[in-house]
Amino acid sequence: MKNLLLAAFFTVTGFTYAQQCNDAATKEVQKKLNEEYANPKTSPLPKKDLKKFKSLDFFAINLKYCVTATVTRTPNEKPFYMATTDGRKSQYIKYGEAHFTIDGKPYKLNVYQSLSLMQKEEYKDYLFLPFTDDTNGESTYAGGRYIDLKLPTGNTLQIDFNRAYNPYCAYNHDYSCPIPPRDNYLETKIEAGVKAYKK
Question: Comparing C-alpha atoms, which of 63, 182, 189 is closest to residue 131?
Answer without folding.
Answer: 182
